[in-house]
Amino acid sequence: MTLLLSTLLFRWYVFFFWGVGFWTLARIVGFSGALFRFLLAYGIAYSCEWSSARPGGWFPFGHYRYLPTTLSKEVWIGILPLMDSLSFAFLAVGALGLAAMYGHRTLGEALSLPWRDFWKVLSGAVALFVMIDMVIDPVALRGSRWFLGQIYDYPDGGSYFGVTLSNFAGWAVTGFFIMTLWKMLPFKPRIKQPSPVLDLILPVFLYGAVYLFNVSVALFLKEWGIAGADLFLGGLVSALFLARKIGHPPSSDD
Question: Do 182 and 111 touch, CB atoms closer than 8 A?
C-alpha cells in the first residue's frame, strides 16, 4: 500500500494524463467500455515492452533494458515499472482524437465510422502516436537529470538522440494494434446529448499537454537539439492542420 501511494506521488504526471485520457474515452463508451479498452491497451503494451526488454528480446521495439533504479519508489510488474505501459492508452486517445479532428470529426464519430473510412483516421493516428514518442523518448532517456530517474537505456545506443529507430517502428506496431482492437470492440455511445466542443477539446488538450510537458523538460535540460526537433515536429503538425482548415473546410459529407 505504501509503495502504491509512493507510485502515485512519484508519477503524478502520468496518472494525471491517464485520468484525462480515461475520462475522455469514458464520455464516449462509458466507464466499463473505457476501462476494458485501457486494460487491453496496457496488456498489449506490456507484452510488447516485455518482449523487447527481456534478455535477448528485440521485437517490436528493438532491444533495450529497464534499470531497477526506482524499485523502492514505485510499483514494478516483473521487469517493467507499472507506470510505463500506462502511457500507451492515454497517448492512443490523444492521437486518435487528434487524427479524427483532422477529418472534422470527434473521437466518438471516428470510432463509429465504417472500416473503409476508419483506416484513414487510423493511419493519421498511428503517425501522431509515433511522433509523440519522438518527443517523449529522448528526454525520458535522460531521466537521471530530472525527476523521472534513469529507468531504462539502449545498450547499443541509438541514432535519434540516443533512441533507436526500431523503437519508433515498435510504437507504430503497438499503436496500430491497440487502436484497431479498440475499434473492433462493440461501440455504444454513452452520451445522449454529447458536447461536440468538449469532445474535440479533450484529446487536443491531452496530446498538447504531453507535448508541452516534454518540450519543457528538454528546455529545462538545455537540450537545444531535442527541443528544436520537438518544435519542428509540433510546427509540422500545426501546419498540416492549418492547411487542412484553409484548404478543406468542414462539410456535411466530410
Answer: yes
Phi, psi of 146, deg, nearest 5 = -145, -170
Q: Which of 97, 104, 124, 113 is nearest to 202 (CA)?
A: 97
Helix (H, G, I), strand (E, B) or coil at 74: coil
- Cα(3)–Cα(76) distance, integer angstroms: 10
Residue with cell 473503409: 116
CA distance 254 to 244: 12
DSSP character for 80?
E
What number is the average pLDDT over the span 228-244? 94
- Is residue 48 within 8 Å of 175, Cβ to Cβ? no
Q: Identify the pLDDT of residue 252.
A: 46
The closest of 206, 213, 215 to 235, measured between CA atoms, is 215
| pLDDT reported for residue 123 | 97
